Structures are given as structure tokens and as C-alpha cells.
């Protein structure tokens, strides 16, 4: 079975390393990719899509050189290839308007301020990835250890 991809995006290497470290419990079931810019993330998504790989979740910082995280997530939200991809905005510098734009334009599923609680981040990832798997019509049976059982119960799948 092919692993679903989680893409983490942050221009600060130490923050990116912290996010990836916090997601290590999910590595058994999901492929975790790292990008240091919005453009790098969009290029990687294009490459993964061409390979037929699934992108279940994008976790992005907001304030980055070039294109912001909200702009990138808005572009992802408008691309039908990624209609089931879930999105988390992880930032410490977003304004109130940035947060509104992230929700309204980018369809952000969750918002975390830096510094985040690793257990809450993992729980959110599991919930969102479970929704991705169900919406995509994938066989969730082989990933039960990584999925949110409550979301499965609510969907009537368990």
C-alpha cells in the first residue's frame, strides 16, 4: 500500500525540524515531506500528483519569503486535484485578517499558534487524515492504528 503524504512547509529550518519531529509517531503510516517555501511545496505537490501519490495534509507557516502560507493554501484549495487535501496553518505572526482569509479563502481546517502542543497537533493530524482517507474512498482498514477512531465512528465506518 502506498503511503499518503504529509507536507510540512516553513522557511525556518528549526521550526520545520520541530514539526517533523512531532509528527514522527505517524511515519509508520504516512510519508512526511519537508519544504522551505510555498513554491517548493507547490512544485513537490505537482511532482507527487504526476506520480499518482496522494497528498493528505499540508501543514504550513504563514509568513514566508515570496508567497505567504495563506496564499499557497488558497491556491491548493482552488485546485480540484487536491479537493480532499486537508490544511493546517501553523504560525505566530498572523493578523486577525490573515486568519479570516485563511479560513474563508484557503479552507484551512485547523489553525495552530507557535508554539503548539505536540499532542494536539498529532490529534488534529489524525482527525484530518482520517477525513481525507474517508473522503478519498481509500481502504482505511490497513491504517487503523493511525486514524481517529472517533471520526470513523461518526462516519459509520466502525
TrEMBL record:
GO biological process: phosphorelay signal transduction system
InterPro entries in alphabetical order: Bact_response_regulator (IPR050595), CheY-like_superfamily (IPR011006), Sig_transdc_resp-reg_receiver (IPR001789)
One family name in Pfam for this protein: Response_reg
Domain Response regulatory: 5-129
SMART domains: REC (SM00448)
Sites bearing 4-aspartylphosphate, chain numbering: 61
Chain segments annotated as transmembrane: none
Keywords: Phosphoprotein
Record protein name field: Response regulator
Amino acid at each position: 500500500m502506498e503511503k499518503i503524504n504529509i507536507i510540512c512547509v516553513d522557511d525556518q529550518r528549526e521550526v520545520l525540524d520541530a514539526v517533523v519531529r512531532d509528527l514522527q509517531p505517524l511515519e509508520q503510516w504516512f510519508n512526511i515531506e519537508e519544504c522551505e517555501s510555498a513554491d517548493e511545496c507547490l512544485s513537490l505537490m505537482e511532482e507527487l500528483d504526476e506520480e499518482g501519490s496522494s497528498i493528505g495534509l499540508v501543514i504550513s507557516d504563514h509568513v514566508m519569503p515570496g508567497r505567504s502560507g495563506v496564499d499557497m493554501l488558497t491556491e491548493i484549495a482552488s485546485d480540484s486535484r487536491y479537493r480532499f487535501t486537508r490544511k493546517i496553518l501553523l504560525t505566530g505572526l498572523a493578523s486577525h485578517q490573515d486568519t479570516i482569509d485563511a479560513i474563508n479563502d484557503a479552507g484551512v481546517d485547523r489553525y495552530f499558534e507557535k508554539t503548539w502542543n505536540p499532542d494536539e497537533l498529532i490529534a488534529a493530524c489524525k482527525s484530518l487524515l482520517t477525513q481525507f482517507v474517508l473522503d478519498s474512498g481509500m481502504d482505511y482498514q490497513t491504517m487503523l492504528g493511525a486514524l481517529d477512531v472517533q471520526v470513523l465512528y461518526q462516519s459509520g465506518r466502525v
